[in-house]
Write a structure and sequence with these properties.
The chain is 47% helix and 12% strand. It is of the alpha+beta class. It has two domains: 86 residues, Phosphorylase Kinase, domain 1 (2-Layer Sandwich), CATH 3.30.200; 235 residues, Alpha-Beta Complex (Aminoglycoside 3'-phosphotransferase, Chain: A, domain 2), CATH 3.90.1200.10. It has a five-stranded antiparallel beta sheet, with helices on one face. Strands 6-9 form a two-stranded antiparallel ribbon. A two-stranded antiparallel sheet has the order 7-8.
Length: 338
């Protein structure tokens, strides 16, 4: 059966065979989404082809955990994990990334609500079976910036990358010791929905959490406040860090050290991933976000905890000049699968 035939069979089994179907914008993965309407009732079809490396079971596992905490993950209406289909509750279109430009007076309220979701999540025991986002994993992912961003998919920076990865791993291992909470890893304005008709932390709809791992409590706050796709005011970032630390009654100085290290790690990884999305997957529009990510990286590297790697990184990695960005765009789709 073709992918389309499998989808129709899944919808028929779920009672949605006659639904009106409209494609929705996808993400950086191989997943596809459609909005369905049946007799006025909405739903979302997730199509995650296993033959392209997708697996809906982690999404199902994390969604069940989040829903059990009273958080607004989409309810799963029907599932076919073997063929990679989910029928999901439709949480609407009110992404933070759309609501805030239209209603800027809500910005602080939305980010406070999103921070409160993290506080609630971090107060709960994480679900079983999560892999750990530890120093080895983080350093390896940060080193993607060398191969894909700096060297445009070649091995010309291999030696520099290996030296950085070793030094950065030691730094992370020394400072990032609390790996006790569920981290969603893509917790930002394009994956959060505003649901004002709900109460408390349920007002924030959650998307794209299937890659969740066990990690440090600062990680998702960095993801939220150092958003690659939109600007977050510095005073708002500072306010949310303060709100998180005061509410949890934790030492802010130690938390900010972890925040800077994890910010550098995350932004280095994003430089590599966005360059790879252009060079390998022919998605050049991700290159347009790189200057903002570089700005965050420079801010994180200014923290004293990163002094041992700051000079090396700034010497090894090129600034995102227009020439370098054009190089990454012009080579769109030219790097094949190894």
């Amino acid at each position: 059966m073709t992918r389309g035939e499998l989808a129709r069979a899944f919808l028929a089994g779920a009672g949605w065979e006659t639904a009106h179907r409209v494609p929705l914008a996808g993400d950086a993965s191989n997943r596809r989404y459609e909005r369905l309407s049946l007799d006025g009732a909405p739903a979302v079809l997730m199509d995650a082809p296993p033959e392209k490396g997708e697996d809906v079971r982690p999404f199902m596992h994390i969604a069940e955990h989040l829903e059990g905490l009273g958080l607004s993950a989409p309810r799963i209406l029907a599932s076919d994990p073997v063929n990679g289909f989910l029928l999901l509750e439709d949480l609407g279109d009110a992404l933070f990334a759309r609501v805030i430009p239209d209603q800027p007076e809500l910005e602080t309220s939305l980010y406070t609500a999103a921070t409160d979701v993290l506080l609630a999540l971090h107060a709960a025991e994480p679900p079983s079976g999560l892999k750990v986002y530890d120093a080895d994993v983080m350093a390896e992912l940060a080193a993607l910036s060398y191969r894909w961003y700096a060297a445009a998919g070649t091995d010309e920076k291999r030696c520099e990358a290996e030296a950085f990865q070793s030094a950065f791993r030691d730094l992370l291992e020394a400072h990032i010791t609390d790996l006790s909470v569920l981290i969603q890893r893509d917790y930002h304005a394009e994956n959060l929905l505003w649901l004002p008709e709900r109460k408390g932390t349920a007002r924030v709809g959650l998307l794209d959490f299937q890659d969740a791992m066990l990690g440090h409590p600062a990680y998702d706050l960095v993801s939220l406040l150092q958003d690659a796709r939109c600007d977050v005011p510095a005073e708002l970032e500072d306010g949310m860090i303060a709100h998180y630390c005061v509410t949890r009654d934790i030492d802010r100085q130690a938390f900010e050290t972890a925040y800077a290290l994890l910010g550098a790690q995350r932004n280095l990884r994003i430089l590599g991933v966005f360059a790879r999305l252009s060079l390998h997957f022919c998605k050049p529009h991700y290159i347009d976000f790189i200057p903002r990510v570089w700005h965050y990286l420079e801010r994180d590297l200014a923290h004293p905890a990163l002094s041992s790697v700051r000079s090396k990184l700034l010497n090894d990695l090129p600034e995102p000049t227009q020439d370098h960005l054009n190089r990454l765009k012009d080579a769109c789709g030219t790097i094949p699968t190894p």
